[in-house]
Amino acid sequence: MVFRDYEMLSRWCDYYGTQLGRENLYIVSHGFDPHHKEITEGCNLVTIPRDKLTDFDAWRFEMLHSFVQFLCASYEWVIRTDADEFVVADSSAGTLPQILERQVDPFVFALGVEVFQGQNEPELTSQPITAQRRHGLVWASYSKAFAVKAGWRLENHGIRFDPRKLTGLRVNMPEGLYLLHMRLSSTSIHQAHRDRKVLMPSAPRSWRNIDRWEQQLHDAIALGPVEDSTAHLRQVWAAQNKSRLRRIYHAGKLRPVVRSEFNRVVELPVGIVGRV
């Protein structure tokens, strides 16, 4: 679901259109916006009214879940992301469709990385973002499930399921698959994104705590990059695929493993530079 966010939406349509075909993209526009119609040419644009903002997160999640299941009747896999989220596969791991085709589990997670604008890096041009930004912050709590098959529910960065019927699930996070979050990749884009959240009536609690959340990000970025980015990324992937948080798991929620030591700056891998 998107509200304004024109530059990121344009990049989103171009990137996923190349990966999946624009005819297979569905954009939910939160309120009529003629610019969205222009940007999403060749895609499927669905406009919903913006007059209902009370309990925004609750009804948004329910509506998007229903829409995902509707699409699952026509597609083997359905991917759900925000306009500033790009699921990118390292070139050594294959393409995004190839990775999905190899999966046995009916859901897939990707490693969350906050791509940010360094102190000496200029504002973005029309070139790919990963060709203009060198570093990203691995942010374990932003790693999330992004694709499901029919009957599975994406919820709160994870998967909702019935623990009485299913056991032994793991966080299926293929190595070499990243969820690049681009809100910090540009100062101007970040400020516009922030303004939309702060000014929104009945904003979700997480949005109202945006200052605290951003301070945590900046504190982690201030630690600087790790010595060996490849080794750090592999450590995070290994933990995700071998562990689960039992309390959350038994509550019927499968989410990524979150540890504070995971949240460190890495160099963007060569295999994703220039991809988006």
Automatic annotation (TrEMBL):
<protein>
    <recommendedName>
        <fullName>Glycosyl transferase family 2</fullName>
    </recommendedName>
</protein>
<dbReference type="Pfam" id="PF13704">
    <property type="entry name" value="Glyco_tranf_2_4"/>
</dbReference>
